């Protein structure tokens, strides 16, 4: 068992290791959480304040922290972590680099999401600033900036929605740009990663909101979240099936690659048990067979969120490792 | 390394195509505007004896640390039975693609194609070590230099022998003259003349990388059905 | 309950990171394998044969323990590598064959050299009696491509204390390939 695990985690054609899978995983969470937060805010009854909603609070923590966490992982995974600033300085040296455009995206995404968070939690932040850093309020232009953002709120949210979707597909494009590995070089990969990123973003937001911000089944937005979850999981399943069938229609190496990935060995196990079983079929089944009362219990909400997260992380690990097993 | 008849025919096709292009002085496979020279190499697998003199010469000339290599000669499984068994040799090194995946993915522009020579090279101090290029290379010829921590690979001795007006170290060291190096834009160069005379193939050409490493296959007439 | 929920989060996060923890590269290094050849015992089946062998070998030693000045053959003082054997009286006949009419007719003993009167195939055939092709290939792939072309004695010296080719350094090995093949190319394939 340990021997086969060794072989599954260390092979010649493996270039990117598990930190990249975690990086892709947390970026997906950020993208999904952002999309969910915007959805809830748009659908929220006008009387209720977005800043008071546990799900939006949870998303506001997850969105920037997951990107920062992902970037920290990425920086420490470089062979020269201290030179990471060159990626920012020289990001336009190669306009067609997916990673270069990713860096641009991170910068814009981080700035706009921070602006949005500052807007949504303006009251709370102002109180905090007044209490701990009274001088900060006197900085020229800070209030003016706040007002300015408030004026373009709709437009800002629209831009952020696009950026969040771009971040979701970016995680897929990063891998699908590699025509050296047939399983990675697939056009459905960005869509698959966007869908699974949404799943994991919703699950992580629910998990955090339920444990730290006392959200429950009655929290506004919770029903919406669950309504979103179902079609996303179904589309994930569809995309996976399309990927498998499509690769079987492909060239010689496409067939060899998908066959090696899902027909046997450690990563096939991860795929069938982790991705398909825990991540997709089990949550779908649980949703079908349980009663409304059970579904509304915190235990159910939490366990289905954890299952989804395990499934999505399995998918990232599976695609990354199984993808690199077979070079073109 | 298996040579199917299809690959063999594909190789023939490529020769014809290249020969036509070579006579005209320009190539149909050219995408990037290269000023003047466009260096390429031929590895004649029928002449190679697998001695690895090239491997050591490369290491010495370019100061390549132990544990990594810019150039490897991969020996096949024996063909035939003792005492008639023989081997095929495959040169694993940078193909100097004209549409290089490693250059296309590099986020900082550290990987680049030198416009004066068409050589794919790396700015070591611009590289941050994200390893995207290593993953992107379909030929798996890139590595992280354990000393500089930058991505590195064969650059046809661009900064060593070539800068001194000499042939690349591997070409110089080959006792069999199995390596031919030269300017593909020059119709009178040895490499263009050899390409016109011999059957050649290029590795993983179907990926659209337009490699400038040409190989004379050591086929011994075998056909796989 | 709150504590339980929080620990649930941390546990799930830990599980998510588990696959990465099984790290640690394995380094496999292969040393030069010395080829185990067939046993010397196979050359004799009974006592009579053994007596004949001892008699033959004593005759070899009698002359060759000193330098043969007329033909400039140096004294044979060591049987290098694993080829000498006390039990078989230096084991000369195992490789060189029976004395026959030697030294009156040189042809009757098998000698090992590039310009020996013994044909190449016969010289190398002697080695192959004990060393199997599989073992030879495992020890050094170049056996496969040189066996029919040059005699084993071009590289192997069994009357030295140590066979100079065994465990030869990488640099010298490459130099050997380069020098030899270079000279073949210079002479257009004629040795």
Describe the structure.
- Chain A has 328 residues and is mostly helical.
- Helices cover 77% and strands 0% of the residues of chain A.
- Chain A has 15 helices and no strands.
- The two termini of chain A are 28 Å apart.
- Chain B has six helices and nine strands; from the N terminus they run αβαββαββαββαβαβ.
- The radius of gyration of chain B is 17 Å and the shape is globular.
- Chain B is of the alpha+beta class and 225 residues long.
- Residues 1-32 of chain B have low confidence and may be disordered.
- By secondary structure, chain C is mainly α.
- In chain C, 42% of the residues lie in helices and 0% in strands.
- Chain C is built from seven helices and no strands.
- Mean pLDDT of chain C is 77; it is low at 16-35.
- Chain A binds chain B through residues 12-13, 15-16, 74, 77-80, 83-84, 86-87, 90-91, 93-94, 96-100, 102-103, 177-181, 324, 327-328, and chain B through 101, 103-110, 126-132, 134-138, 140, 144, 149-150, 204, 207-208.
For the structure shown, list the relevant keywords.
heterotrimer, A: 328 residues, mainly alpha, 15 helices, B: alpha+beta, 3-stranded mixed β-sheet, two-stranded antiparallel sheet, 24% helix
């Amino acid at each position: 068992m340990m021997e086969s695990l060794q072989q599954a985690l260390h092979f010649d054609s493996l270039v990117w290791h598990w930190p990249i899978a975690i990086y892709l995983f947390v970026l997906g969470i950020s993208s999904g959480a952002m999309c969910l937060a915007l959805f809830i805010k748009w659908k929220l009854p006008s009387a209720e304040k977005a800043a008071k909603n546990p799900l939006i609070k949870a998303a506001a923590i997850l969105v920037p922290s997951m990107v920062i966490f992902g970037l920290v992982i990425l920086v420490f995974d470089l062979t020269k972590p201290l030179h990471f600033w060159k990626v920012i300085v020289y990001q336009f040296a190669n306009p067609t680099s997916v990673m270069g455009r990713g860096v641009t995206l991170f910068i814009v995404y981080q700035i706009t999401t921070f602006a949005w968070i500052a807007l949504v939690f303006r009251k709370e932040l102002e109180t905090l600033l007044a209490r701990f850093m009274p001088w900060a309020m006197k900085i020229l232009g800070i209030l003016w900036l706040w007002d300015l953002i408030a004026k373009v709120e709709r437009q800002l949210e629209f831009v952020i929605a696009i950026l969040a979707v771009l971040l979701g597909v970016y995680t897929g494009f990063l891998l699908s740009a590699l025509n050296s590995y047939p399983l990675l070089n697939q056009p459905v990969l960005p869509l698959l990663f966007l869908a699974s990123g949404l799943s994991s973003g919703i699950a992580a937001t629910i998990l955090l909101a339920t444990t730290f911000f006392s959200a429950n089944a009655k929290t506004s937005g919770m029903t919406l979240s669950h309504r979103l979850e179902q079609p996303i999981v179904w589309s994930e399943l569809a995309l996976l099936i399309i990927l498998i069938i499509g690769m079987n229609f492909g060239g010689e190496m496409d067939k060899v690659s998908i066959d090696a990935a899902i027909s046997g060995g450690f990563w096939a196990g991860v795929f069938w048990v982790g991705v398909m079983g825990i991540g997709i079929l089990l949550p779908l089944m649980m949703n079908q067979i349980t009663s409304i009362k059970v579904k509304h219990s915190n235990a159910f909400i939490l366990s289905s969120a954890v299952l989804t997260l395990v499934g999505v992380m399995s998918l990232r690990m599976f695609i990354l490792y199984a993808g690199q097993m077979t070079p073109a | 390394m298996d040579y199917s008849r299809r690959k063999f025919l594909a190789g023939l096709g490529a020769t014809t195509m290249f020969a036509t292009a070579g006579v005209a002085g320009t190539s149909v496979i050219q995408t990037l505007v290269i000023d003047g020279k466009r260096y390429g190499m031929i590895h004649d697998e029928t002449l190679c004896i697998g001695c690895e003199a090239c491997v050591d010469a490369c290491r010495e000339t370019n100061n390549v640390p132990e544990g990594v290599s810019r150039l490897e000669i991969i020996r096949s499984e024996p063909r035939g039975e003792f005492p008639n068994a023989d081997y095929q040799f495959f040169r694993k090194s940078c193909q100097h693609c004209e549409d290089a995946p490693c250059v296309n993915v590099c986020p900082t522009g550290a990987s680049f194609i030198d416009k004066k020579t068409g050589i794919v090279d790396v700015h070591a101090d611009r590289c941050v070590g994200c390893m995207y290029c290593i993953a992107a290379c379909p030929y798996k010829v890139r590595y992280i230099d354990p000393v500089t921590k930058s991505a590195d690979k064969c650059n046809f001795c661009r900064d060593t022998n070539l800068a001194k007006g000499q042939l690349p170290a591997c070409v110089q060291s080959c006792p069999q003259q199995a390596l031919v190096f030269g300017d593909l834009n020059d119709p009178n160069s040895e490499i263009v003349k050899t390409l016109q005379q011999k059957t050649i193939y290029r590795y993983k050409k179907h990926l659209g990388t337009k490699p400038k490493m040409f190989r004379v296959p050591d086929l011994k007439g075998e056909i796989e059905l | 309950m709150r504590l339980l929920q929080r620990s649930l989060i941390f546990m799930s996060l830990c599980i998510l990171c588990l696959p990465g923890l099984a790290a640690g590269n394995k380094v496999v290094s292969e040393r030069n394998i010395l080829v185990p050849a067939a046993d010397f015992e196979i050359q004799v089946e009974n006592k009579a044969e053994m007596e004949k062998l001892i008699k033959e070998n004593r005759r070899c030693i009698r002359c060759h323990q000193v330098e043969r000045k007329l033909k400039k053959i140096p004294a044979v003082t060591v049987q290098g590598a694993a080829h000498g054997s006390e039990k078989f009286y230096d084991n000369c006949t195992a490789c060189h064959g029976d004395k026959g009419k030697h030294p009156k007719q040189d042809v009757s003993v098998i000698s090992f050299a590039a310009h020996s009167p013994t044909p190449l195939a016969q010289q190398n055939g002697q080695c192959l009696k004990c060393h199997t092709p599989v073992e030879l290939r495992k020890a050094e792939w170049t056996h496969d491509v040189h066996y029919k072309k040059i005699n084993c004695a071009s590289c192997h010296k069994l009357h030295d204390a140590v066979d100079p080719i065994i465990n030869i350094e990488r640099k010298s090995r490459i130099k050997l390939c380069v020098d030899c093949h270079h000279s073949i190319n210079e002479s257009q394939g004629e040795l």
